[in-house]
Design brief:
Length: about 300
Amino acid sequence: MSYQIELRHIKYFLAVAEALHFRKAAEKLFISQPGLSRQIKDMEEALGVTLFDRHNRQVLLTPAGVYLKEELSKNLKHLDIILNHAKHLEEGKDGELKFGYVGSAMQHIIPELLIKFTKNHPKVLFSLKEMGNIKQIEALLAQDIDIGFVRLERIPRGLDSTLILKEPFCLVLPGNHPISASNFKNILQLKNESFILFDPEYSASYYEKVMGIFDDNGFTPMVSHNTIHADSIYKLVEKEFGISIVPKSLTTSNNPKIKCIELDMIPQRTSLSAIWKKDNSNPILTKVLALIHKEITN
């Protein structure tokens, strides 16, 4: 084989395979369209396969093209991770770990985990991004993050998880609300209130669990606002737009404009889990998971 395939040819192929349009792919790659077409043709000749069907101004992947797109996308991501890890080593870092998390995990769980981990691994770079549950799943499968902290009952194939904590829910009320811990009996006392809840897109299973609290008390809540951010919930409660129900780990005692009442008398509990891709090759992930499992078992 006289013609050698290089990394750039694979990137060119993937760009066309994603766009299914040579001009758009060329613009994205900042090269000329004829130049891109020539590179793809060279790659096809070197492999002895046809990657694209080109007819009537339409570009489609052949079966061989579909296979290569899937396999090369996956393995190119692995290569990027390996090269980035080498770069971090050159810069004096042991590596990088990318976190995704729901807001409640940042209250205590993740900060405590990072403090303990950096005692023995001070040269690790951490990237942290608050994301909804579904966005974390997508990012894990795409290997855009290494580990997530989610509130989900089920996870897709290819991912693994471990339970971090199971906790009760809490009511969140304005500071001047007549209901307090001393006179609260059950949720039915609040059936005429407007509720501010996490959006079902945050987690359908979490939303159904919260709705089960209302079902057990025989009423359907008036939901005035849905959001995916805890800060938005607290701001809306502060301004008396409604009340809310959140996981206990998301509550705070530092805000005098709101008050929280733990719902420890109801059966519903919410779970926070760490989740990761089974074939993730990041060596830092293995060390973080070892610490997580050690903390859980202690």
